[in-house]
Each structure stands twice: as C-alpha cells, then as structure tokens.
# Entry
Amino acid sequence: MLLSYGMVDMDPHRHASLKTKPLFRAKPLITDSHRESGELVVSFCMPCYNGVAHLREAVASVLLQSIDKYELIIVDDASTDGTFELACELASQDDRIHVYLNVQNLGIVPNWNRCLELARGEWIKFIFQDDLLDPDCTAQLLDAARRQHCNFAFCEREILLEEGVDPQVSAFFQHNLLRFGDLFPDRVYVPAHELGRGFIAHLGQNFLGEPTSVLIHRSCIFRYGSFNPQLVHLCDLEYWIRMGCQEGLIYLPERLASFRVHPSGATSASLQSVHKKFRRLILDYVILYASFLLDPAYRPFRQSSSDAKWIIYGSFLSALRRKDAFLGQVEDPVTVAALTSTWKQTLSANPGIIWLQNREPLYRRVLRRLGLTRRLTGYSWLSQEEPAIEYKTIMENTVKFESQPT
# Structure
C-alpha cells in the first residue's frame, strides 16, 4: 500500500524481484600506468572523424595556449577524408602533438573515451576538430579552478553557425539556448547541491555547454568514470550531471571557447534521418532518465531536492509517450519495423526501463498527488523540435494518463 511518496523506493537493488545491474556503471579508464609523465599539466583531447576542413585551425588554437607543459592527443576514428594524414603532418612539426588511429570506427562517445585512456596530464581539456580556444582559455580555467580548489570548471562559449546549417538547429542556438549565466547570474562557484537543483528545474537541458568549454581534473575520471557509450546526443549532459552533482563547479562568464555548428557536424548530422531523430529525441532521454532513477552513481542528483526523483520519473513517462507519438507519425511500415526493433534492443540492453514501466500504476498516484503530471509537460526540452505538434501530443497523452483509473 502506498503511504506517501517518500515511502516508495525507486532503487531496484532493494527489490528482490529485479535481478539486474545498473543501466550504466561508471568505470574509470585512466590507470596509474598513465602517470609516467607527471609534469604534464594539461592533456588536450581532440577526437576526430572526417574533420580535415577545420583541423589545422583547431590545432593552431591549442598550440597558442598561454600555458606550458601540455600535450595534444588527436585520435582519428578511421576517417576517410585525409584527417589522419593531416594530423600526422602537424605532429611532425610539434612534438607535443600525439596522433592515434582507430583501426575501425568506434563512434562518437567511444572515441571520446579512447582519448581519456591516452591522456597523461593532471587536467583534461577537450577540444573538437572544428572548435577553437581563446589563447588564454586554459590558463584562466586553470587559475580559477586552483584558486577555488575545484576539479570541474567551464567557460561560456561562442556559437559559430555556418551557412547551410539546418534551420531548426540554427533557431535553437540563436533563440532557445539556455546558458548557465541565465540560471546562476554573477556566480563563480556553484556547489553540488545547487547545481543539482538547477539540473532538476531544467531537466534535459545542457546549460553548461559542450566539452570544448570544460576543464576536468583527472581525479574525476577515477571517481566518476568515462562518458556513457549508450548515449549519443546527451552524452556530455549526462556526464556533467554525474560529476557536477558531486563536485560543484567553477564558471567563467567570458566566452573563451568557440563551438562550431556546420552542416556536416555531429549536431546537425543527428537530424538527418528518422532513425537518428528517434535516437536523439526518444532513446537518449529514456536511457538518461532511467539511469538517473536506477544507477547508484546518480544518488546525489536524486537527493538534490525532495521531489527530484518524481520529476525525473514523470519526465521518463513523458519520454515514453513521445516514443509512441513519434512511431505513430511514421508512415513507412519498414521504417516503423526498424524503429520498433531498435526499441526492443534498447529494452534488452536496459532491463531497468521495463522495471520502471511496470511501476507506472503505483508511481502514477504519487505524481498526481504532487501535481506533477501536468506541470511536466511545460518543460522546454519537450518543445525544442516542432513545438506546436509536440506540445499538443504530450498534452493529449497527459489528459489520457490522468483520466485512467487507478
């Protein structure tokens, strides 16, 4: 019998009926064997794939950094456009550049993690193949992090929109992008519990930014592990939450990094097919919210506010309803079959999702008691794409959801 929302336990490991493991167990990749070069202050990590057009400029922005004792690690993910050859040419001109080639394509997130495996510096600084750093970017981040004794720092970034970018992507970055300074004005340091409340209040929105804006102490990789390879679009947001809700962070409002968005970039490319759209709009959110609810790594996040886990669970249910609405709008039966197969594979790899689905009749009462069911439909991440249609669909599903008998 449900007594109060505080009495319902969402941890599957307390329930003998669920024989499974966490959806994603954080596992450190960096080992003590990488401590050979203890004098290295920063490892710049540059994962690459078919980035020959902007690689030279990105590398130059690293070599202009106003710090000493650093390395630049370039890991090419089996490019076909000459990226590896150009990287080798640049490495031959500067012994701080180290180039690695994946024999076969690993994909975005596994290649990020490969960079972490190879990093030897005390601090980790990502920069992508088409991004840029201000000459003082790393120095200012280092100085702020050390003064505040914080292992996680980031700065604001400039968005470089190139011609030919998808109009929806362009509109998002120009008009709908939520920045950290909007939520925490005039703050240099934000403790972990406040950051957690910010992520709950704007669940699903990455108001920190991309990895190019971030500086991480290598000890965080030991504590919290690597990026989650199950995610594609939300992989950086997930890691910021996993780490930030235990470390807190330093924020520099100056725009010391530039994030490039172009037609062939990962951000635009993720919109180019129905399958990738399904991955970006549906699967990533379902996996992310299920991980937040079930994995012990996110316990501090779940505890950041009294109703945090219920807001997450309500958002999980909304994501499931978006999945049904999405499949209902696809007319091609072959495509529907392929997406359904992908969904079944996701459930097979993440049995915790099924466990959460089965708890809906019980948890639905809690959401209604807290008045969260209708409020959750107002979150802006639900309407980042096709807002009118998306919002109407969610509202209709919510009404049906609330009218069902308990």
